[in-house]
Specification:
Radius of gyration: 17 Å
Subcellular location: Cytoplasm, Cytosol
Organism: Alteromonas aquimaris
CATH superfamily: Flagellar protein FliS
Number of strands: 0
CATH topology: Four Helix Bundle (Hemerythrin (Met), subunit A)
Distance between the termini: 51 Å
Family: Belongs to the FliS family.
CATH architecture: Up-down Bundle
Main location: cytoplasm
Pfam family, one: FliS
Strand content: under 5%
Order of helices and strands: HHHHHH
Structural class: mainly alpha
Length: 142
């Protein structure tokens, strides 16, 4: 099978996974997608493929902006505000990495995002169920 066929197959699986995913899983997919694209950008940076690097870093920034903008600052309080500031910082650092062509900055962003993704994976099912129930009650009240 050609690489093109494999990539099409992967895209189909990802689209199916997204269609069936709950909000927790979608967030996890976004975080993992950002980490994957940082790795791809590093490779492009090392190969001096500036347009490719720019495209991947743009996608990472878009993912982080999405994650940042979906935070509920009213409900999340100080934790949500800190996460908002951290996502902002990572977005700024990606811009620095793009301009300076600096692999270490990409490593820094990876080192900030990885523990968040790892913690997200560890959320117990009971906590997810409770959060979904609260969201549903909130929707019905509106």
């Amino acid at each position: 099978m050609s690489l093109k066929g494999i990539n099409a197959y992967k895209k189909g699986n990802i689209k199916q996974e997204i269609a069936n995913a709950d909000p927790h899983r979608l967030t996890l997919l976004l975080m993992q997608g950002a980490l994957d694209r940082i790795a791809f950008a590093k490779g492009a940076m090392e190969r001096k493929e500036h347009a490719v690097k720019s495209e991947y870093l743009s996608r990472v920034s878009a993912i982080l902006i999405n994650l940042r903008d979906t935070l509920d600052l009213d409900v999340g309080g100080e934790v949500a505000e800190n996460m908002y500031a951290l996502y902002d910082y990572m977005i700024d650092r990606l811009t620095d990495a793009l301009v300076k062509n600096d692999l270490q900055i990409l490593d820094e962003v990876t080192s900030l995002l990885t523990p968040i993704r790892d913690a997200w994976v560890q959320i117990p099912q009971s906590a997810k169920d409770e959060a979904y129930a609260a969201m549903e009650q909130q929707r019905q009240a509106v």
